[in-house]
Amino acid sequence: MSLEIKGAILGLIAGLGVLGATFGLSPVFQPKKVLETKREQFDPPVSLTTNAALTGEANRGIWLFDHNCTHCHGEDARGDEGPSLYNLSKSDARLRTIIKGGIKGEMPSFVKKFDDGDIQALIAYLRTLKD
Hints:
The protein is an all-alpha fold. The chain has six helices and no strands.
């Protein structure tokens, strides 16, 4: 076999190896659609709330709250760095505006992270928080 043919075969093998590695590792480098996956597989832990009879939307809101809001509002939503979210008197429209836009210097904006359905699920959960 000539050197040119050996070189071509080795180049082909190396190229196929790189291609295989690229496709094999592509899931590792692709952004994960965590919320999409969790929406489909969601089974909320009852420990996040004392009300086990929540609607599906409120249950999804629990998951969203747990993964995005607890570090400021506390695991029980009674406040930590952020205020307690129990017995909210603000309208749904006002809550939607706050979640989307945040509060300057106090709360980040979630407009890029949550779609309208996510925000509605969060609000549905917040409406269950009564003393």
